[in-house]
Design goal:
The complex is a heterodimer of chains A (301) and B (749). Chain A contains nine helices and twelve strands. Chain A has a six-stranded mixed sheet, sandwiched between helices. In chain A, strand 4 and strand 5 form a beta hairpin. In chain A, helix 3 crosses helix 4 and helix 4 crosses helix 5. The longest helix of chain A has 16 residues. Chain A is globular and about 45 Å long. Chain A starts with a strand and ends in an 8-residue tail after the last strand. The chains are: A alpha/beta (301), B alpha+beta (749). At the A-B interface, helix 1, helix 2 and helix 3 of A face helix 13, helix 14 and helix 22 of B.
Chain lengths: 301, 749
């Protein structure tokens, strides 16, 4: 691992036993992430994106291969070392905010800080972060009293409180409406802009365009990688990424009715007709399946 | 548990009245004739000669510390008052010889069991002519004489044998047994006898009602304690069922919503949970019945063995089945009531939002988290999240604390009773000396003078007993009253008054609480007492409490006793030894100096019978504590499992954030420890305030309004770490489930 690499994974294999049969989720996967980069992982449902994130974050162990995060051999680390890594080096942002329901937003942010050794001024740090993510006025609210977007922003603040070397985000905008999606993605851009390393799993093209590279997964392996250049504006990035994805070929890129796909995705992508509505709303047809990004509006046929 | 007594009384055709008469005062033939001629009397036994030994009866070289009442067994075949012979010579068992031979003694089964005496053993009985050896040739059961707490213990000897044990002048007492047609006629007959007698009864009279009371006393106390524990256990069982079902409903909230959306009716949904949890609850009723049967059977066998009826009758199975049915019904009701919650789930809300989350806000200040250990914070939070359940758990622990505090301190109070003898109406002395009235005698003045110069003795209080009669009120018979006479300062031996002061002059008297209440008499009132053929008036100076004679009695000074009998002399001495001297050494020394002229006992020995009662009580209290601790343990275990189940997702989140498994386990343990600590903080002071108050109320009937409750500070304080360790042990094991929570479940593929 070179000195500017914060994480690398080599030869990762993972199989789940479903009882009657074994399902291979990851197969000889290799990935290297440079410090300060923003990597996006895309792929259809069941391609192994989230499993990869589990393994990188030490929530699960690979059957084969090695993972090194911040100089720690994650695949060989003890439970205590893994807990320490999740506390100090790696933070998660999940598709659902996963806030502790009976704690206020402030306490949810604080509690992650309290787990680390840096307990001093945790209250002030938590308030500062809530200000950064724009929910400082909601400090005393419970998660059930705020919107999904606000919950997710709180989850981002929680992920940042221990200043981790790596942030792992698993479809952080998957459950959000478009306005909240924009806000959360802006946050990730901001975090990345501050020099943090981010690995984000997403289905959405506009979310993927936040990163500086996109890794495309299929059948448990990374089959391609696209790197954005710094001078590309968001619209251009979307077009370039779409073209690149189109070149990867037919069935490889289905955002439609794949088994296990979320309801939100189905709603957005399974609709019969989408129309352009200004610069941010686009649709494309690819192999007979609608690929959407931006803010689609549905009209009656 | 009372059936063995009924069987015993019926089988042996026990007397309904047992009369002990002093034939120097009463005409035994006239008394016999009076009873025989009463229409309700079925039969009267011939007067049986009796003689009481001293308490230094030796068996296997050791004193059995119990005096014996030797009764001559009659050759005549009586219609009632039989004894059951459990072990004896073959000719006795075959009925060829119904009496012991001269030199032999029959003892009660109870005495044999408690003192480990067997047939063939020898008892050395002190007589005025020295020790007399009698061989135990029979173990028998007699309903009137088979109780541990009755002193002296009755024994049977050959007809006419008592003349070998005591001089004729000492053989003045006889026993008469009277059986009536119906048991309820016994009390009115006894009252009619007192009226016919017209004077104080020189002797004693025991009716079957008192006998039943004596037999059932311990059983009733245990029964009340068991009933209280059973009710508590049932309440905790309801709580556990309710908490478990509620927790399951919350866990399955979304599934319930889906089922209802698919057409399940509320009653169908209720039925799922009702069958599931009712089945689990009902599964444990048969083992419960089995355990109950075994325990009740063991208690029953113990009672039957004592009265020689072992194996003759088992427990009526309905007594086991009926409570089981009642408990089953109560559990069904509780489970049905709680399961209704599942039927009330609204499908749309359940599917979209899941179970409503519990909230608690504003308890901790924003900065609190910074300094509070996270596991402690989470523990407190969990308590506050389900206040109802926490309060219920606290009440349960509080009750356990109450029983533990009661057990520790009541044991301590009885163990140190000699230090508070004054509060029990007794002389708080290191040593108690009784001057002998037999062969070797010492004059009271001589003993008093010797004690005043004895280097080991610091204080002396001479005293004696005094029997008198209260003049009858209209329509009532005269009442015998036992009192104490003191020569010296009563206060210096710990004696106190609830009101007023000790009597000093010859016309002053202090009354025991119940005697004063019966009057009623207050300090300053005039009180009349009849004794030695005189009716004298006294001025009441004080009212005191005593644990003797059901709170009846009186105290006065030597001058007052001498108004009745100028020759009255004290026969007892309370001695306080100089500081640092051991009472046992003091006793041995005095006994060595004075020999048979005095009988010295230490305060502990003096109170041995009370301490004996304590040993029985200790066992019952220990069992009660064990049952309560077991119930609390189950409650903690269940609550811990439920907490983990309910907070599974939160634990997953915290693990994903970097919390270690140990940290999560500790948060669960902290919750339990905090609950116990809070309940102890409330229950400990409350118990220490409530117990003496309650004991005072309970003992009010026997004249002890201020129960001498002595707090064992160390023992009471040890309850705190003891219960915390118990809670830790009960929570630690199930809290291990927190380790198994897998944060992967949080991530959606």
């Amino acid at each position: 691992m070179s000195h500017d690499t914060v994480m690398h994974a080599r030869g990762l294999c993972k199989t789940y036993d479903t009882g009657s049969e074994s399902v291979s989720v990851l197969s000889n996967l290799n990935l290297e992430v440079a410090a300060g980069s923003f990597s996006v992982i895309m792929g259809s449902s069941g391609s192994g994106k989230s499993t990869l994130l589990y393994l990188l974050g030490g929530l699960d162990r690979p059957d084969e291969g090695e993972i090194v995060v911040d100089n720690l051999r994650v695949d060989r680390a003890s439970e205590k070392e893994l807990a320490g890594m999740r506390r100090d080096s790696v933070s998660f942002v999940f598709q659902e905010a996963n806030l502790v329901p009976n704690l206020t937003l402030l306490e949810n942010v604080q509690i992650a800080g309290l787990l680390s050794d840096r307990r001093e001024e945790v209250n002030q740090r938590a308030r500062d972060l809530m200000k950064v993510v724009g929910i400082e006025d909601l400090a005393d609210r419970l998660p059930s009293q705020v919107s999904g977007g606000e919950q997710q922003r709180c989850a981002v603040a929680r992920a940042l409180i221990n200043e981790p070397a790596l942030i792992l985000a698993d479809e952080p905008t998957g459950n959000l409406n478009s306005a909240s999606t924009r806000d959360v993605l802006d946050l990730f851009r901001q975090i990345h802009g501050q020099g943090r390393t981010v690995i984000m799993v997403t289905h959405e093209l506009n979310a993927a365009c936040c990163g500086d590279r996109v890794c495309f997964m299929r059948d448990g392996a990374i089959i391609g990688e696209y790197k954005f250049s710094d001078d590309q504006d968001p619209d251009r990035r979307e077009r370039l990424l779409f073209d690149w994805l189109s070149e990867r070929g037919g069935d490889a890129w289905r955002l439609g009715h794949s088994p296990g796909q979320s309801e939100t995705q189905e709603k957005r992508c399974g609709a019969k007709r989408f129309v352009h509505a200004g610069g941010h709303n686009r649709y494309h047809h690819f192999s007979g399946v609608a690929i959407c990004f931006g803010k689609p509006r549905q009209y009656p046929s | 548990m009372e059936s063995p007594v009924n069987i015993l009384l019926d089988d042996l055709r026990a007397s309904h009245i047992r009369l002990e008469l002093d034939t120097q005062i009463h005409d035994k033939n006239a008394v016999y004739a009076w009873f025989r001629d009463r229409p309700e009397v079925v039969s009267v036994t011939d007067p049986m000669a009796v003689w009481q030994s001293g308490s230094d009866v030796i068996h296997n070289g050791e004193s059995i510390k119990k005096s014996l009442l030797l009764i001559e067994r009659s050759f005549l075949d009586r219609d009632h008052d039989h004894v059951r012979i459990l072990d004896a010579d073959p000719e006795v068992l075959s009925g060829d010889r119904p009496v012991p031979l001269p030199g032999e003694i029959w003892i009660t089964n109870q005495l044999a069991l408690s003192r480990e005496i067997e047939r063939g053993d020898t008892l050395q009985i002190p007589t005025s002519a020295g020790k007399r050896e009698l061989q135990v040739s029979g173990i028998v059961v007699d309903p009137f004489n088979n109780l541990e707490n009755v002193t002296p213990a009755s024994c049977w000897v050959a007809p006419g044998f008592l003349t070998f044990m005591a001089p004729p002048a000492d053989l003045t007492e006889v026993y008469l047994g009277i059986r009536v047609a119906e048991e309820h006629q016994a009390e009115p007959l006894a009252e009619a006898f007192r009226t016919w007698l017209g004077s104080e009864l020189a002797g004693s009279m025991l009716t079957v009602k008192i006998l039943r009371l004596a037999y059932g006393l311990f059983t009733r106390i245990v029964a009340v304690a068991l009933l209280v524990v059973a009710i508590l256990a049932l309440i905790i069982a309801f709580f556990i069922i309710s908490a478990t079902v509620t927790s399951a409903v919350f866990s399955d909230y979304k599934v319930i919503g889906i089922l209802k959306a698919q057409g399940f009716t509320p009653s169908q949904v209720n039925g799922i949970y009702l069958r599931q949890y009712l089945l689990t609850a009902l599964l444990f009723i048969p083992p419960g019945i089995l355990c109950g049967h075994l325990i009740a059977g063991a208690l029953h066998r113990g009672a039957m063995e004592e009265i020689g009826l072992l194996g003759s009758e088992g427990i009526n199975p309905w007594f086991l089945v009926l409570p089981a049915l009642l408990v089953g019904g109560a559990i069904l009701l509780c489970a049905w009531w709680t399961c209704r919650r599942a039927g009330r789930v609204r499908p749309m809300e359940a599917i979209r939002f899941g179970a409503p989350s519990l909230h608690v806000k504003g308890i901790f200040k924003p900065g609190t988290l910074q300094w509070m250990p996270l596991s402690v914070f989470l523990g407190f939070r969990n308590i506050l999240l389900n206040v109802k359940r926490s309060v219920f758990a606290m009440i349960g622990f509080g009750f356990t604390v109450f029983v533990l505090v009661f057990s520790v301190n009541i044991t301590h109070s009885f163990s140190n009773i000699h230090q508070h003898a004054g509060d029990w109406g007794m002389v708080a002395a290191d040593l108690s000396v009784r001057l002998s009235s037999k062969r070797f005698r010492v004059r009271p003045e001589q003993f008093q003078e010797a004690m005043q110069v004895d280097p080991a003795v610091s204080k002396t209080l001479a005293h004696g007993s005094f029997s008198a009669v209260l003049p009858p009120k209209r329509g009532e018979s005269p009442q015998e009253l036992f009192g104490n006479v003191f020569v010296g300062d009563m206060s210096s031996f710990g004696m106190t008054n609830l009101e007023g002061s000790h009597p000093v002059s010859g016309d002053e008297i202090a009354l025991a609480l119940n005697t004063a209440r019966d009057g009623p008499y207050r300090p300053g009132d005039t009180f009349q007492l009849y004794a030695e053929g005189q009716l004298l008036e006294f001025r009441v100076t004080g009212i005191y409490q005593t644990g003797q004679n059901f709170g009846q009695g009186f105290r006065f000074g030597e001058a007052a006793a001498k108004r009745f009998n100028p020759n009255w002399k004290p026969r007892y001495y309370g001695l306080n030894l100089k500081p640092g001297l051991d009472p046992q050494e003091g006793k041995d020394r005095l006994q060595k100096i004075w020999g048979e002229a005095v009988r010295v006992t230490t305060s502990r020995e003096e109170l041995r019978e009370l301490v004996d009662i304590l040993s029985g009580m200790k066992f019952a209290l220990s069992m009660l504590c064990l049952v309560l601790l077991a119930v609390s343990g189950v409650s903690i275990f269940n609550d811990t499992i439920l907490s983990i189940k309910e907070h599974r997702k939160v634990f997953g989140i915290l693990k994903a954030l970097g919390a270690t498994s140990g940290m999560l386990r500790m948060s669960i343990v902290w919750k339990t420890l905090s609950t116990i600590l809070f309940s102890m903080l409330a229950a400990l002071p409350t118990s220490l305030w409530l117990i003496p108050l309650g004991l005072g109320k309970l003992a009010e009937g026997i004249g002890m309004v201020h129960f001498p409750f002595s707090i064992n500070v160390t023992g009471t304080l040890l309850i705190i770490p003891g219960l915390l360790l118990f809670g830790l042990a009960c929570a630690w094991l199930p809290a291990g489930r927190a380790l198994a929570v897998d944060p992967r479940e949080l991530i959606v593929e």
